[in-house]
Amino acid sequence: MNGNKSLYRYLGKLFQKNRKKTLAYLEIILAVTLCEMLLPLLTRDILDKVIGKGDMKQLLFLTAMMMGLTLFIAAMNLGMTALKSSIRKSYSANLKVRLLRRLSRFDGAFFSNQHTGDLFKTLDHDLYVVESFGVDSVISVGMAGVKAAAALVILFGMNAPLLAVVLGIQGIMALIQKKVNEKSSKSIQEVRAVAGNLANQNEAYLSNLMNLVLTNGKETLLNQYIKNERAYAKKCVRTDCILGVSQTSFQILARLVTAATFLIGGLQGAAGGMTVGEIMAFMEYTAFLIGPVRSVIS
Length: 298
Fold this sequence. Notes:
By secondary structure, this protein is mostly helical. It has helices spanning 2-17, 19-50, 56-104, 108-112, 116-158, 160-207, 209-214, 218-270, 276-297.
């Protein structure tokens, strides 16, 4: 609960410092989402109403509209990249200053019990992670929510029974993903702990290099470092494997949804229920639904 309060306080300050830029970013997200929602409808119309009927004028119009929307989305994405980078760096600089000021207020006892390597790791790696999380998470979740809500409404209107099958598959995969996330979180914490020990050993080795050479103690420290490095590599491999399971589960989800759409849509199409264009449009909207869920879970 306290962690959630800290997160909300952090995100609130992030928004206050960059209110205008954040609002501009959200406006661009809405514009991009609207354009992306139109693309599957163009695909449907091109397949069902143009191709095979020889209407070249309509074909040129729809394909030109599709290319125009694609270029507009690309331009807006570049704008979002610039805004996100500006927000991130602005808040990161402010956070570094606050952190350094906070460190300067601690007494000597704190620094006596704190390794320099841990401090450097916090100022460098951890701060970068927090910086990326603060901006990317808010933006990604916001974009994911808008896309998922729009896709859900459209899919329900297109084919509610098929949507129920897709949501059922996605629900099962979400439960699997939850278990994977719990294991990956624990594994990442272990990796962080070992990485901190390695950083402290590096700092100790470099700070006492002359004494180690004079006392022939470098071999002992190096052997300990090699042991910790192997443990670090082993934990990293385990973490990567767990994260690999996460990626694979989403690939399986996408394939299962595609297969279900082809199967049910094909059966309905044979009975005159869905056209080829509608099946393709349904699949594109499904991607808008699966992608945001993946983003939120990540």
